[in-house]
Specification:
This protein is mainly alpha-helical. The protein has 3 domains: 127 residues, Arc Repressor Mutant, subunit A; 154 residues, no CATH class; 175 residues. It is 56% helix and 7% strand. The protein has 24 helices and 8 strands. Strands 3-4-5 form a 3-stranded antiparallel beta sheet, with no helix packed on it. A 3-stranded antiparallel beta sheet has the order 6-8-7. Helix 19 packs across helix 21. The radius of gyration is 31 Å and the shape is elongated. Homodimer; probably only forms homodimers in testis. Heterodimer; heterodimerizes with RFX1 and RFX3. It holds the Pfam family RFX1_trans_act.
């Protein structure tokens, strides 16, 4: 601490300025620079308040950085609230709520040199605080202004590897005695800063008490349901992909759309910024398996209390200061009424939700705990209701578009978790030698010639292709292959069947037709096993369910790759036809026109369509 009136020695700062060191400590001043005058001494800001000075980033005798901690005074909080009321137009009746938020920041955080906090993690701390004390949280942008009103001069930097960087507050950290330090999911970043990306854990190991006294002093923290949830989340971290790279969003293409006077290009840029930041916060919450925070995030984003009449939307002047962008609710509604904006937002949602799927279920065949699977399914069940509630005041078209995408996301989570459950059940069957031998014996009794004869009229498949698949299936079963080897075989089947359609507009339709034929043919085999009362019927039924689901998974990913869409977008094509993307519509129109042309040609030749398909070697599905 430094005082202008103290008579003590000076030391010279790197910038050449001299600073007086107090011989005795004056009354404590806040560790933050909420109010007062900020100056620079050798690159370290000096904050003055009531005759006392505080140098941020000072050094001790060993040239180590000093953290500055102190309690705030009521007068300091009042001045900060007064400043916020003037700068943000906050009404006086909200001062009590502001006081609570500011006091919480001061109680849990302090300035320190050379450290940083992920901005989304700090906001998650805040949401937890509001939930525990039943307070209405402000949105992320407004929260950023609250922080800057407490820690003036705080810098924001984008840190991390390229493509996976996040905004961090530089020069701030949790206080050592803050209760937040005991929450594993919120302290993981302390170790992350020191490790390579592929080694970074999302949580620290649970801290164990060393004595009965310590246990009793913190027993309430360690016994809460939330703490138990955090411990379980820590155990689940190994099953998700925490190193996933979040792709960048494309820019909205307004084309020749004329904006109304109330909406400017400046507002469109602001939307790009805040929506990306909102999606990053969503991704971070899901990556920490804090599913219950999603509802609050959505409510906060889509229901900003600010009004567009309060003033123009502000944008950051640089990439280092992104906290100034705020979009009030009425401005957001106005922007969403433009079709190009809605289409852009839909595309961003496809990217976000696909990333979330790949984070939560990176490998559909890998064994995962049933508790994690159930948590994901419960999360999927709640998504549509949460979003509909958060957007209740928006136009119906906007709600339908947004809910259509989140519905496809929820359906994908349900399908993938079901596929994973089937995989674990089938794994036990495939590892049982006696069951495999019984299955092989029963399969050899199936009359495949009769099956092919019955299925040929519907499937129109080449007999040689069907025979090859039959032989490969029996050989793979005889070799007692693992689940992963079966998956590789199924993947090879899809590759061989669809390779002639790669790069062709007929690829999506050929892929869907293959799924139908695969399902129909396998059902005929199951029918034969049923009629023969095969002892291994139950095992075959389970395997059939798994292979059908896995085939669907493979095909939807191949179609997504071929069309340049995400699998979420491919499935969204059928979940929400009203907001179908133009690209998918065009591709479907091409397929429909080709089908109609085939019908016309067949009728003009006086030849049945089925016969026409079987005799035409160029038909796109003939080789399947």
């Amino acid at each position: 601490m430094y005082a202008p009136s103290s008579a003590a020695s000076y030391f010279e700062a790197p910038g050449g300025a001299q600073v007086t060191v107090a011989a005795s400590s004056p009354p404590a001043v806040p560790s933050h620079s909420m109010v007062g005058i900020t100056m620079d001494v050798g690159g370290s800001p000096i904050v003055s308040s009531a005759g006392a000075y505080l140098i941020h980033g000072g050094m001790d005798g060993t040239r180590h950085s000093l953290a500055h901690t102190a309690r705030s005074s009521p007068a300091t909080l009042e001045m900060a609230i007064e400043n916020l009321q003037k700068s943000e137009g906050i009404t006086p009746h909200k001062s009590g709520l502001l006081n609570s938020h500011l006091q919480w920041l001061l109680d849990n955080y302090e300035t320190a040199e050379g450290v940083s906090l992920p901005r989304s993690s700090l906001y998650n701390h805040y949401l937890r605080h509001c939930q525990e004390h039943k307070l209405d949280p402000v949105n992320a942008a407004s929260f950023g202004k609250l922080i800057r009103s407490v820690f003036m001069g705080l810098r924001t930097r984008r840190l991390g590897t390229r493509g996976n960087s996040k905004y961090h507050y530089c020069g701030i950290r949790l206080k050592p005695d803050s209760p937040l330090n005991r929450l594993q999911e919120d302290t993981q970043y302390m170790a992350m800063r020191q490790q390579p990306m592929h080694q970074k854990p999302r949580y620290r190991p649970a801290q164990k008490t060393d004595s009965l006294g310590d246990s009793s002093s913190h027993s309430s923290l360690h016994s809460t349901p939330e703490q138990a949830m955090a411990t379980q989340s820590q155990q689940h971290q190994q099953y998700i992909d925490v190193s996933h790279v979040f792709p960048e969003f494309p820019a909205p293409d307004l084309g020749n759309v004329l904006l109304q006077e109330s909406v400017t290009p400046h507002d469109v840029k602001a939307l790009q910024l805040v929506y990306r930041r909102h999606c990053e916060a969503t991704l971070d919450v899901v990556m920490n398996l804090q599913f219950h925070y999603i509802e609050k995030l959505w409510l906060s984003f889509w229901n900003s209390k600010a009004s567009a009449s309060d003033g123009p939307t502000s944008l950051p002047t640089s990439d280092d200061e992104p906290d100034g962008a705020v979009l009030p609710k009425d401005k957001l509604i106005s922007l969403c009424k433009y079709d190009p904006i809605l289409k852009w937002m839909r595309g961003c949602d496809h990217i976000l939700y696909q990333a979330l799927v790949e984070i939560l279920i990176p490998d559909v065949l890998r064994p995962v705990p049933s508790t994690l699977t159930q948590a994901i399914r419960n999360f999927a069940k709640s998504l549509e209701g949460w979003l509909t509630n958060a957007m209740s005041d928006f136009p119906q078209q906007v709600i339908q578009t947004k809910v259509g995408v989140v519905s496809a996301f929820a359906q994908t989570l349900r399908r993938y978790t079901s596929l994973n459950h089937l995989a674990q059940a089938a794994r036990a069957v495939l590892q049982n030698t006696s069951q495999i031998n019984q299955m092989l014996s029963d399969l050899n009794r199936v009359d495949f010639a009769n099956v092919q004869e019955q299925a040929s009229w519907v499937c129109q498949c080449e007999e040689s292709v069907v025979q090859r698949l039959e032989q490969d299936f029996k050989l793979t079963l005889q070799q007692q292959s693992s689940l992963e080897q079966w998956a590789a075989w199924l993947d090879d089947v899809v590759t061989q069947v669809l390779k002639q359609h790669v790069g062709s507009p007929s690829f999506p339709r050929a892929a869907r037709q293959f799924l139908l034929k695969w399902s129909f043919y396998s059902s005929m085999v199951i029918r034969d096993l049923t009629l023969r009362s095969a002892a291994s019927f139950g095992s075959f039924h389970l395997i059939r369910l798994l292979y059908d689901e896995y085939m669907f998974y493979l095909v939807e990913n191949r179609v997504a790759e071929a069309t340049g869409e995400t699998p979420i977008a491919v499935m969204g094509e059928f979940n929400d036809l009203s907001s179908l993307s133009l690209t998918l519509l065009d591709k479907k129109d091409i397929s429909d026109r080709r089908s109609s042309e085939v019908d016309t040609d067949a009728r003009s030749l006086g030849e049945p369509l089925v016969k026409r398909e079987r005799s035409d070697p160029s038909h796109p599905l003939q080789g399947i």
